[in-house]
Amino acid sequence: MSHSSGQDNLLLILNQYETAFKIRESGCDVITFQEVRSDEDRNQLHELRSLLPQYKWLSFAVAHDVDIMDGVYIRHWQREGIGILSRYPIESQSVQRLTYTKGPDSNRRIALHVNIAFPDPGIIHFVIVHLSYDRYQQCGNMHDILQSEQTQKSEYLVILGDFNAYPDFEGPFQLFNSSSWDSNNPCIRKNRRLNFLKHLRPLSDAWRLSGIKGGNTFSNMPAPGMVSRPDRIFVSANLAIAGAELMGDGHAYKSRFLYHILWHRVGRVIDVMRDSWLGQRGRSCVHDCGPHASCRCGVCVGGNGDQNVCMLPDCAECSAVQYNFYCLAIIVLITLSVQLIYGALQVLLTLNDQSKKNRSSAEKETGIFGSCCLCDPELYRSINARIRRHRRSLLCRIWPFLLLPPMVLVMVTVLLLCLYVAIVMFVFKDAFDDVSSVLPEEFFPSDHLMLSVLIHKQ
Q1: SS3 of 282, please?
Q2: I want to staple 408 with a disulfide (CB 3.0 to 4.6 A). Which of 40, 127, 181, 404 is the partner?
Q3: How far is CA 373 from CA 287, 380, 385, 414, in A?
Q4: Is residue 354 within 8 Å of 424, Cβ to Cβ?
Q5: What percent of the chain has pLDDT above 90?
Q6: Which terms in the GO cellular component ontology are assigned (predicted)?
Q7: Which domains are delineated in the chain?
Q8: pLDDT, tens digit, 9 for 90 and up, residues 234-278
């Protein structure tokens, strides 16, 4: 059984493939997720399960609507929630709406309760959570969750998720263990109603039970480096931990998906060019690029927050004019590619004809270039006969280059392609700069690691 969570770890298609790869690699039976996006037609968890057919059971619950940034013209994911995938049958499920307590975090929080039937030890009750980022609102979240478990009285219990834990604020997690009950606990000082937890059966931190040091799972991007341990799994005393592991190193992700990351950014810039040509106005990124980056043409690039951001139609590198150039560049590329293929075929056909003639005439003189097939004089023959043969061809009237001798046509086309590449690099220089300005955090599938543990009955 395992737990996986992460900020935006399902937001990009690339991350879905990386997440699926990690899950298959881990061999976990149960996976839980936070910040899963959905709308009327799509759900990221359903899309992920299509890559993992062995996980036949799924549960998902919406927590709250997604806040849309001001000025964003793109209609994107509308809701966010938490979910679970399982190899074993989900017997029952329910959603607990956690009481909203006054504080800076306005997001509504939920707990997803799921009973899963295993061959051994049988039914295990899972509670999937994503607590508030505010310390004292976390205390309120824990009050509701633990009070609910006091009435559930499940034999085997696992509470897991993104607890948004801070290294200097362990109060909410000390509530799991009645043996460490402390009236000076900041949660208890804030809310005396938590006294009932003295009589709650204790839950233990699975990572601590494994005996492994460290355990930090969250990186404060853009400087990768694990700084805290918000992702945790707590188990009841009748469950034991046989092992624990952290997965999701960004170096492996970068080596597998660097090309795909760049290609995705190219496609995004082209899409925004088209949007600008269609008259769209506003912000082209659906997500916040953070304090060290800016949104330009649908991608995040290095910059000082929003100081370098550009709104459509004021982005020069993805304007309507640039889209016209892009369409023209595609037409020219197709034309030159067809011309090159035509010339190469003409070279092959000419050489084939010459080979047949050489075999039929043992005394044929090939001239000083006869030792090299690409120097065959026939490849550079005068175009007069060719013009007479094709003078009625509409295609040759439209595109006279086709009347050139085969080898000359190939060489001219190669030179034109070199010129084409130089012009494209000049015209789209700023757009290419946006594409290549990949932020360090884009080389990580998430700013959280995946935590997995092996659980068995005591």
Answers
A1: strand
A2: 404
A3: 58, 12, 22, 19
A4: no
A5: 39
A6: endoplasmic reticulum; membrane
A7: 9-201 (3.60.10.10), 249-349+376-446 (no CATH)
A8: 999 899 999 999 887 666 777 777 888 899 899 999 999 999 999
